[in-house]
Design a protein that fits this description.
The chain is of the alpha/beta class and 270 residues long. The protein has 11 helices and 9 strands. A 6-stranded mixed sheet has the order 1-2-3-4-6-9, with helices on both faces. Strands 5-7-8 form a 3-stranded mixed sheet. The protein starts with 8 loop residues before the first strand and ends in a 10-residue tail after the last helix.
Length: 270
């Protein structure tokens, strides 16, 4: 597996964990088309990897992500497309949704560390993580409508994360709130108030992830993501096939033997 060279991301693979840090601190890690492409390339690179078990998403400089780089968008997107030409603004916006789906569907466990600004696109990125931690003082929100824009690619993932009724309230008011409210809404799973506390919780969570068989985790994630998208019998039929594949694969015999022998399974020793 070869990780891509990136200008806007810091990538570090260590002990089965890919630490992916958005590195545009001068703009509070605002999203650009180039950055979207780099995140997509990073997730493409690890899609078939058995070496990478988890991805930790974070932003450099104390901010997760402040959303889209609106200044850059407005500088290049005001001229309407010529007849028959694709709209570059629509294409750029749609690319963000493509990236969010890549992150959401990654076979690895994706963990978001939400601190500082978690706005707009950053809010959406938090919504497609499997596990999210929030600093008490982190600022969450979707301010798009206060800028005259819809949270177009983000809104569907917000509905999936916290439900339609809360998504309507947040999207249609542009309300901003702190980490405690994000925890109450179910947007994030745990809060923290210091780097030391975060590292302890992150370490515990990663240890739990490493105790799970990587292929079983990947297939479980696929089953979960099928709910609501496929008819329930189709979900259950597909799940049964995945279960049978695991029974006949290498992980279940090892996991069951480890349980019977009161030892750790081989994958937990990585």
């Amino acid at each position: 597996m070869q990780l891509p060279d990136c200008k806007n991301l810091l990538l570090k693979l260590e002990g089965g964990v890919l630490w992916l840090t958005i590195n545009r601190p001068e703009s509070r890690n605002a999203m650009t088309p180039e950055l979207l492409g780099e995140i997509g390339a990073a997730f493409d690179a690890i899609r078939e990897s058995v070496e990478v078990r988890a991805v930790v998403l974070r932003g450099a400089g104390g901010h997760f992500c402040a959303g889209a780089d609106l200044k850059g968008m407005m500088a290049g997107g005001l001229k309407p497309p010529a007849p028959g030409e694709a709209d570059p603004v629509a294409a750029m916006n749609r690319a963000f949704g493509v990236m969010l789906r890549q992150v959401s569907a990654a076979p690895q466990v994706v963990i978001a560390v939400c601190e500082g600004a978690v706005l707009g696109g950053g809010f959406g990125l938090a919504c497609v993580s499997d596990i999210a931690f929030a600093h008490t003082d982190a600022k969450f929100g979707m301010p798009e409508t206060t800028r005259g824009l819809p949270p177009a690619q983000i809104a569907p993932f917000v509905v999936e994360r916290i439900g339609l009724t809360q998504a309507r309230r947040l999207c249609l008011t542009g309300a901003q709130f702190r980490g405690a409210e994000a925890l109450r809404l179910g947007l994030v799973h745990e809060g923290y108030s210091s780097e030391e506390e975060l590292q302890v919780k992150l370490g515990d969570t990663l240890a739990q992830v490493m105790n799970c068989a990587p292929r079983a985790n990947a297939l479980t994630k696929q089953i979960l993501l099928n709910v609501g998208k496929l008819e329930m019998d189709a979900v259950l039929d597909d799940a049964a096939q995945k279960f049978a594949a695991c029974v006949r694969g290498p992980e279940a015999p090892e996991g069951i033997a480890a349980f019977m022998q009161k030892r750790s399974p081989q994958w937990a020793k990585n």
